[in-house]
Each structure stands twice: as C-alpha cells, then as structure tokens.
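Reopening this one. Same input as before:
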Amino acid sequence: MTTTKATKPNGGANACLAMDPSALNANLMERVLDPENLRRAWRQVKANRGAPGIDGMTIEQFPDFVRSPQWSMVKENLMAGTYRPQPVRRVYIPKASGGQRPLGIPTVLDRVIQQALAQVLEPLFDPGFSDHSYGFRKRRGAHDAVRQAREYLKEGYTIAVDMDLARFFDTVNFDILMQRVNRRVSDLLARRLIWRYLRAGVMENGLWSPSGKGVPQGGPLSPLLANIVLHDLDMELEKRGHKFVRYADDFLVLVKSERAGQRVMASLTRFLEKKLRLAVNPVKSKVAKLNQCNFLGFTFRRKKIVWSDKALAQFKRRVKELTGRSWGVSMDYRMQKLSEYLRGWMAYFALSEYYRPPPELDEWIRRRLRMCYWKQWRRCRKRVRELLKLGVSESQAVLTALSRKSYPPSRRRYGGQAGTSLPGEARRTKTGPGRWQPKAA
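Same output, byte for byte:
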C-alpha cells in the first residue's frame, strides 16, 4: 500500500497555471474558437450593445475587423497562448445610495472573446452551483430569488441577516479565484487567458494602472467568475443548514430569532474575511426583520412582495430627469426615452403586489408631460392654436393661455372640460408699465 502526500503549491495563481501537464490535451480553447461558438458570442455582444473600449472600435466596426487579416492573427495568438488582452476603459456611474460605481469596459474584441470563453466554461461550473444562487444563471433571475425569500418568510423565518460585501467586484482575490477555476478547468491555455484578463489593467484618463485584485464589472466573464468565488459561501451555508438566497453579491440568510441572526452574522463575517478574503461592510450589514430589509429593490409587507421606498424614490428621480422642462430635446425623443424606461421599470417591478400607487404615478407623469408641452408652446398665440387642435372651445383656450397660474397639479383639482387641464404659465408681452396683454391669436 502506497501513500501520497498532498502539498499545497507555492506561488499562488502563477504556480497553479503551471500545474497539470495533461492540460494541453483538454482542447478547451478549440471549443472557444469554434466558429459557431464565436457567432453566438458575437450575437450576444451585439445585442448588449455597449460603448467602445480604449481602442475606439464600435459594435458597427467589428464585422470589418473580422474580415481583415488581423482577426486570423488574433486566433493564432489565442491558440498559441500568446494573446494579450487590452486594458479596460474605466468609467463611473452614479449609485442610488450616493457615490459612484466603477465599471471597466473591455474592447469589443475582448468582449467577444470573453463571451465565447464564458459560453464554454458555464457548462463546467453551473451544474455544481447551489440551487440557492440566482444571479447571472440561465432560467434563474432576481424574481425567483425574491419569491424564494417570501417562501421562507411564510415558513416563519422572519429575521434576515442582510450582509453587504464592500466593493465585492473590486476586491476579489486573484489567487483564491484561480484556485477555484483550476478545480474544473484543465486546459492550460484557458487558464492563462483568464489570468491575463484579470491582470490586463485599467486605463483611466490616458494612464494605465495594473490590476492587483478585483474582477471589473462590465465584461461578459465577470458574472461567472463572481459566482465561482462565492460558490464556497453557498456550500458553507448549505453545510450549516441555513435558509438563504443569493443573487451575485447580494444575499440574505433567514433565521427565526434575532439572537440566532447575530451568531450567523459573526460567523459568516469570519468566514468571508479569512477564507475568501472579502470585506464585509459593517455599516450596511444588519440583522433585522425581513420587512425592514431591501432585497433587489423589493421588500415585504404582510408576507407580500412590494417595491421598496428606495426603488420608488429612484424611479421618481429618473422620471423627473426625463420630463425636465429644461432638457432641450424634441418631444418625440423625450417620449421614446421615457417609454423605454417605464417599460423596463414596470416589467421588473410588476412582481410587486402593491397596486395603489400606479394610478397616482400615471397621473403625475402625464402632468409633467403636459408641463413640457406647455413650455414648448411658449407664446399665447401658439398655446391657443394647440388647444384648439385638442378640441378646446375658443373661449376656454384663450382663458387658459392667458392664465397667470403656474402648472396646476391635475385636471380633477381645477375642474373644467376635457382638454382644459393642460397646465400653463402663460407668457405675455408687456406693452406698458404694469400692463400685460397677449399677442393677437
């Protein structure tokens, strides 16, 4: 009987890349560069649209690049293991809670390669993921995670351990990530490509800075890598027998008492910081009743799913931006952008079982649109003419156009026939001191 001694390799991810001599026979990169796989990847990248990277190449210009000899050189470099990804372009988007969220935009070429690589890696990792993980997985989504949390609430798990990972995507440890990638990926070329994407660096204001940790949000490969890192957290929670739901780095652990919740938070904080080297934000993390927590834009009231106050405030802020009277765009463009936002918002928050606000919100949005029309008409002559087109009587149109009142809240408050509810702050020409007269209609 012989025994072998298991030793931990030194050197972190670099040593892991040099392990397993049989990795070159896995042919994973051949599947990545398969023409059909690349076509699927291109269709997905094209559907997602997105801004160009540091090279300035747009989605529309990429087909011409594929027809050029440079594309053949890229594929040869990928198969030879010498391809070097370009740095990502750093941009910032505002966060609802204040501050800015950093994003990394790869070039269109790197997005296609990342998408093709993710399509091949996903079947290797996804079957082993936990059933309680809902983020960035096929046939799973945020609505499923919220529904599952409600089921736990109905079972009596009313206390939630709501933990927030501080800047999760920016603090992922490369060595820990690559160790988990190597558990499933045996192709050395694929390992090297993933490692080089992690170390590609960031270009900001024309200056390149190296990447020491983190998975930049914005690339097609980042969601899969995030799930790979947090898979150990799922396994730990399942081993302990906890009720939990996770969507990317947002997760809730449901318990029946606050005392149990405090114990779970303390033990999970130690696990995340020591095992995965992830920081827990103590300010945003808490143990509270589930109806006091916001999860993916929703909260719970009497075992019903409702949108959170924070989500509603963000909705109103965005609608105010789209219906701002000082936004110098045409009404057709304004209506198009507003329609796109409303359809997307209602499609996501249609899961809510709180039905009272929509009619009031609809009235509020229509009023803001009427204010935009009223300001664009500007002069009394134009306002009278447009009101007459809407079927308003001539006398009522003149009185409305001459009104000194500002934008009224609604038609029901001020009364009047159909069409007279158009609010307006009439602009008049001053013909003498203290005397105001409208221009002739």
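So the earlier flakiness isn't reproducible anymore. For the record, Residues 357-377 form the longest helix (21 residues).
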